[in-house]
Amino acid sequence: MYAALWSVLPGPWWVRLLILLVLIAAVLYGLLFYVFPWISQFVNPQEVTVQ
Amino acid sequence: MVGEILITAGVITLLYVVWQLWIGDVIYGAERNAAGNELSQSWAQEFTPETAPETTPSIAPDEPQTPVQVEPVIIAEPADAEQFGVMHIPRFGADYAFPIAGGVSRARTLDPIGIGHYPGTSMPGEVGNFALAAHRTTWGKPFNRIADLHIGDAIVVETQGGWYTYRFRTLEYVTPDEVEVLLPVPQAEGVPAGTKYITLTSCSPMFAMTERIIAYGVFESYTPRDAGPPAALSEEL
Fold this sequence. Notes:
The complex is a heterodimer of chains A (51) and B (237).
Chain A: H1 2-8, H2 13-43
Chain B: H1 2-46, E1 83-88, E2 98-102, H2 106-110, E3 115-117, E4 128-133, E5 154-158, E6 162-174, E7 196-204, E8 211-224
C-alpha cells in the first residue's frame, strides 16, 4: 500500500517526501479536529451531573 | 498489504487514545479558555460608567477601604446553552476562564461550551444554591483539578454586571442519583434557604461515572464592574 503510494508520487525523492509529509499533516488534522471528536461521543460516556 | 492496513489501524487507534487523554484536552482547554477570556474582555470593553447601574457605597469615600458590601445583582436564569458567565478559579491557574452557560446537557452545554448551570437552581449571588456541572476529564476538562481546591480558595463568577466571589469550603463524594446536593441548602431537605451556596459537580473517579465529586462554597461578596476585578482574583495562593 505504502510502496504503491510512493511510486505514484511524482518527482525526485525529496519532492515525494515533502508531499508525503503534507499528506500526513492533513490526515492528522482531519483526525484530531473532526474524526476523533465525532468518535468520542460514542466511546466516552463521561457523566458529570447528578440526576 | 493487509499487514500495512492493520498496522495503520493500530496506529490510528493509539493516536485516538493520545488525543482523548491528552491532545484533545490541550486543544479544547485552550479553546474554551480563550472563549471565556474573550467574553470577559468584551464585557470590559462594553462597560462605560455612564451605562452602569448606580451603586451607592455604604461608606464615605475618605474612610479607609474596608470591603464595601454591595447588594449583588441577581440576573435572570439563562436559556439553554446561553452563555451568561465566566468562571475564574485562581487555584486552577491565573488565566483560568471557562464560560458558563445554562443547562447541563452534554450535547448542548457541557461538551461544546464548558460549565453548565443546573436549571431551577439559584443564580449567582442569590440566596440558595447556585449549582454547576462540568467535565473533570475530556472536553477541555474544566473541573479537572477540583480535588486540589484548598479551603478558602476563591471561586469567582464573572457576569456582565460584575464579579460574584465565593469561597470554597468542602468536598463530598456521592452516588450519581444524589440530587440532594442541589437543594437550596445542600443535603438538607425541607430546610429554608438562608445562605448563598455554590455547588460544583463533576465525575469521580476520573475517567469513570460510578460516583460524583461535589465541591461546595459559600458566597463572600459582589463586586460591581465599575469597582474593577476583585482582589480575590489576584491573591497569593
